[in-house]
Amino acid sequence: MKVLKVxxxxxxxxxxxxxxxxxxxxxxxxxxxxxxxxxxxxxxxFLPLGETEIELLESTAPDGPIAKFIEARGEGIQHIAFxxxxxxxxxxxxxxxxxxxxxxxxxxxxxxKRIAFLHPKDTFGVLVELCEKSTE
Length: 136
Ligand code: ZN
What we know:
binds zinc ion; alpha+beta; 8-stranded mixed β-sheet; 2,3-Dihydroxybiphenyl 1,2-Dioxygenase, domain 1; globular
């Protein structure tokens, strides 16, 4: 598996709009616009910063994964995403090494990326997302 960079850091917030007071208003980061991933009941905003991005995550439903995360742990860092050159190969390697995966097949993430999550029990408590940029 070839890891290219920290692609983004996912931060669960109650309200993207409110959190932008800090991320844009104070830090000066610019949102690339919001996108809803209906399947995950989440609205996201990506804020590029150098080689990486901040991903703000707001739940669109009270039973969505982000709403549950905030209920259990409060707002905060929810996942770290590593860009890989070949996500299918990365998943195969992790499966062969008996890592627990939440996604055994890449699924569609925001920004047209293909993504897969690893189980935090095997990654020292950090929810790790692998992502591969679409090649179109
Ligand atoms: Zn993410």
